[in-house]
Amino acid sequence: MKSFLYLFKDSAAELKKVSSLTVTGIFIAISMLIETFTIEIPYAKLNFAFLAIAVIGMLFGPTVSFIAGGLCDVVGFIVHPDGGFLPIYILIAMLQGLIYGVCLYRKSPWMMKRAEKKGANIAIYICAVIARLLDVAIINLLLNTKANMHYGFIPETAFWEAVAARLIKNVVELAADIPLLFILLPFALVMYKRAFASSVG
């Protein structure tokens, strides 16, 4: 339990680093760019903006990714206004960031050594899969569907239809999500170390 709480303490310390804030800002901007390619389908949206939050969570931990998730939602609404501004979706986005921060932070030191070689770190890949599955189950299927129903975006009678549609969409999307995480996470980690070598412990 103590080590788990230290994840948040160490992550909060990242907020004092210029490199952490800079890279977080860059990935928030990347998330906005990815959002422009969102594809609307019944009851769901198809996009890969979660990749930016996954990188932030891996590099800087749950405290930073929790805040970044909320900022992504706020900035995303400003850049791509769609309907009314509903704070519940900010909280859901923050919880998404929390998932990636908790699952991926502190897996990076071992991953860094392996990513610079030809070998692979199975631990970070397993954590990436777990993080994405939790994101899909908790955020996409449960919370977003409930929020959409609460605000009348989908009728109560269509709740399970919406869940089924989201489930099918996410299962199909996982075929691309997981390989993208496997490619992006080691690459982002190596690039971060090369760009900010003096600030990476």
What does this structure look like?
There is one protein chain. This protein has 201 residues and is mainly α. The chain is 76% helix and 3% strand. The protein has seven helices and two strands. The chain has helices at 2-13, 18-35, 50-79, 87-104, 108-115, 122-150, 159-195; strands at 39-41, 44-46. Strands 1-2 form a two-stranded antiparallel ribbon. Helix 2 (18-35) packs across helix 3 (50-79) and helix 3 packs across helix 7.
List its traits.
single chain; 201 residues; mainly alpha; two-stranded antiparallel sheet; 76% helix; 3% strand; globular
Report the β-strand fraction as a percent range.
Answer: under 5%
**SSE order in H/E notation?**
HHEEHHHHH
Q: What is the SS-derived class?
A: mainly alpha
Helix percent reads over 70%
With helices defined by DSSP (H or I, 4 residues minimum), what is the helix count?
7
Q: Using only CA atoms, what is the Rg? A: 17 Å
Number of strands: 2
> Given the C-alpha coordinates, what overall shape results?
globular
Low-confidence stretches: none
State the major sheet. Answer: 2 strands, antiparallel
Q: Walk across the major sheet and give the strand order.
A: 1-2
Termini gap: 23 Å
Overall mean confidence score, pLDDT: 84
Helix and strand arrangement:
Elements: H1 2-13, H2 18-35, E1 39-41, E2 44-46, H3 50-79, H4 87-104, H5 108-115, H6 122-150, H7 159-195
Antiparallel strand pairs: 1-2
Helix pairs in contact: 1-3, 2-3, 3-4, 3-7, 4-6, 5-7, 6-7
Brief sketch in words of this structure:
This protein has helices at about 1-15, 20-35, 50-80, 85-105, 110-115, 120-150, 160-195; strands at about 40, 45. It is mostly helical and about 200 residues long.
